[in-house]
Amino acid sequence: MKHARVLIDRAQYCLMTLAQQWCMQFHSYMQKSEDKLVTEPCRSVTKTVGTNQSRSISKGQYRFVQANAMQGANSFSSTITRLMSPGKALLLDESLSLALAAARQVAFDWHIPLDRLYLNGHITEGLKEVLPPEGIVWTSKGLAALVHDDDKAEFYKQLHEALRGGSHAPGSLHNVRLRLQDKRMEWRRIDISGKVVERDNEGRALRMAGILTDLHQDDTAAMLHDDLAVTEKINSAILTAALDCIVSINHHGEIISFNQAAEHTFGHASKDVLGKKLADIIIPPAWRERHQQGFERFLATGESTLLNRRIEVTAQHADGSSFSVEMAVVPLSVDDKPVFTAFIRDISELKQAHAMLKDSARRYQQLVDLSPEAILVVQHDLLALANHAALRLLGAHTLSGLLGKSILDFIQCESHALYYQCAQAGLSDMSATGFVEQVWRRENGTAFNVEIGVSKVAYNDAPALQVVVRDITQRKRAEALQLGQNRILNMVATGVALTEILEEITRFAQSQSEHGICSILQLNADRTALIDCIAPALPGKYTKALGELSIQPGNGSCATAVSRSAPVVVEDIACDQLWESLRELALEHSLKACTSWPIFGRNKKILGTFALYFKDAVAPDSDDRQLSGICTNLAGIAIESRASEERIRYLAHYDGLTSLPNRFLFKEYLDLALRNAQRHGSRFAVLFLDLDKFKEINDTMGHDAGDHALREIARRMRACLRETDKIARMGGDEFYVLVEDLEHGRHAADVAQKLLIEAAHPVMVGGKECRLSASIGIGIYPEDGTTGSALLKNADNAMYHAKERGKNAFQFFSTPVANDHDKSSSFKRASTLYRIDEKRVGLN
């Protein structure tokens, strides 16, 4: 910056000196001999103007020279009036031509009746870009053709006033500044000053003389000066706004720069410390002598161990207190003298943070113990820490018995490679990885589905992995139930034989029930017996012996279920009177318990029975009861398929409980939205919604209460959406929402906000007020995925992120903006959570 300022000063000086020389030569020339201005045909004069030695000159002197130059121009024009000869071209002597050239000027003589324009003097390089070569007779039309369109009006105005005489005094000097097009088709600013020097008896202008001045270098110098001023302002602003202290000293050790951050850190005002010794201001007394010795050694030898690296030292505040700082010193050379700039950062808080690490480790273990999620800390594949939730999840008896075991002991072999991938990703980044599904096993060997999130932590001053483990068995089961249901409904819809459909139902039930053995019986036409037993897993002799099972007392659970039109639970066949006639047959084949559910058709018409047999004296658990509801519904649909085509198509695409579209129909909606968005370049959003606290209703009030709550929540959510928006139930308490024609990300947030509010309203179940909430993840096309599966997966991940952080909120996977043309109004990255205020949700 300093070198640039020197160049500008030198350039300004050269220009001003040349102009000053021109004025001096001109005035001397006019005063001593007017005979040196002679009239003869124009000739070309070519010489090089010598350079001047640089010296300083003030702006006031520069303005004075400029004023003299203009006065010289006026005097020059007056002299021309007295000395010019009619019909002759004006010629200047060598010294005056050189003076004009030094000031980037050339004289002109315009013979108006003949429209001949003579140029006199040395034409500078800048003017050669515009004017014809020296010695060439020009015309006013040639000059006018080069004038910029925006300047022509003023040019002609001044010209006409000069020729006419106008309101100015006779022989007045006229001046105009305009842009002329040069040979490179660029515009160059020119100043034209002239006056009429000869008129005829009727006052018509015959000749005009004057000067053309090239202003291009003045413009360039002004621009350079302005750029330098802007640069100085920017550097000053950076120095002021810097977060680190920036302190500079000269070779005497005196402070020459002390920024705002330094004022705040050291407690000194800049004006109070400039010019003072650095050692006396920020260096504690105990270190000042050592500082001075090192400083003097560098000045003498140019060597120092402190320069160009970060070191930790002790500094002193204005109040006399000492604190730790990190400092880097950079040596510079200004005017061949050393200047030292120190970049200083207060690290006293960092030192305190290190002191708190041990306490933090203790508190970390407390938080892990209190977490409701299973958390494991792993070092070298061994369990170093586990909380009580992990103890329960893994089925271990004591923490001491769990610690020290390999984590691989609790992971199914087929998931080992996937675990190591997660571990590697966690070690490479301090942030947590996304949750990944795996199959683990409990201490007793029972397999179960989990999703794990791995992140790098420090435990006992050593690197470790924190593994958060979630049991997703129920979610996976719900997905399997939904897939099985859709598969069977698809068989019904495509006309597969009824026997094959019922066999598939039994196989499906068998895969989902942990201990149950499934059978399906159909009621005969006269409704007196159960026939056509389909039970692939039951012993063949048993099913053959059943034959036609009459609807009468003591004939087992299935016959009783038909007669009662209700489920019948028999936990112990050996002692239950309902199995009096079939007891020996059942026990002979190790069947000790049986629960049967009637299969209903339209208008509660019984079509048959669905039963689960057990080889232990037990009752069906909640999963089996949920499974029975699905299977009896499927079987009823299949049996009535010939008369229920419309019903079949409906259930193939809609959820039977909530009447909302199901996963398959939603996939069709999503595929169509993708094609439309790709064709029209539009955007849309996919919302994944999971109800919070729904399991509590099922567990405490029963599945009927849960079903009622689901239907009510589904009705509300459908009502708060637009006609064009799509909502579907994926199974359990999970829903998808498709919002098309998304103008901006804010609209997706508005939809999510409405859904959260509707979910938060109380639900009356059995006269009791129940409160739910929802966690919502949002994926935006195309930012969060260009395929349906990617969008659904990312919305799912965002939902679990919202659920992790307190539930009752929605979470974007990426960064949608409130307005596509206003990038400053945007949501935060996925770390930002959007939560409703529950106090604002009405109670009625």
Radius of gyration: 48 Å
Major sheet strand order: 20-19-18-23-22-21
Give the CATH class of the largest domain.
Answer: Alpha Beta
Distance between the termini: 71 Å
Tell how many strands the DSSP assignment holds. Answer: 33
The coarse overall form would be elongated
Binned strand content: 25-35%
Number of domains: 5
CATH architecture name of the largest domain: 2-Layer Sandwich
Helical proportion?
Answer: 40-55%
CATH topology of the largest domain: Beta-Lactamase
InterPro entries: Biofilm_reg_signaling, GAF, GAF-like_dom_sf, GGDEF_dom, Nucleotide_cyclase, PAC, PAS, PAS-assoc_C
Domain GGDEF: 682-815
Pfam family, one: PAS_3
GO molecular function: catalytic activity
Helices and strands in order:
Blueprint: H1 2-32, E1 38-39, H2 59-83, E2 90-91, H3 94-102, E3 105-111, E4 116-120, H4 125-128, H5 140-145, H6 152-164, E5 174-181, E6 187-199, E7 205-214, H7 216-241, E8 245-249, E9 255-258, H8 260-266, H9 270-273, H10 278-282, H11 285-301, E10 310-316, E11 322-334, E12 337-346, H12 348-355, H13 357-370, E13 374-379, E14 382-386, H14 388-394, H15 399-402, H16 416-427, E15 436-441, E16 447-459, E17 462-471, H17 473-493, H18 498-512, E18 517-523, E19 529-534, H19 540-546, E20 549-550, H20 556-564, E21 568-570, H21 583-588, E22 593-600, E23 606-614, H22 622-639, H23 645-653, H24 663-680, E24 684-692, H25 694-701, H26 703-719, E25 726-731, E26 734-739, H27 745-760, E27 763-765, E28 768-770, E29 773-781, H28 788-804, E30 809-812, E31 817-819, E32 822-826, E33 834-835
Parallel strand pairs: 29-30
Antiparallel strand pairs: 1-2, 3-4, 3-7, 5-6, 6-7, 8-9, 8-12, 10-11, 11-12, 13-14, 13-17, 15-16, 16-17, 18-19, 18-23, 19-20, 21-22, 22-23, 24-26, 24-29, 25-26, 27-28, 30-33, 31-32
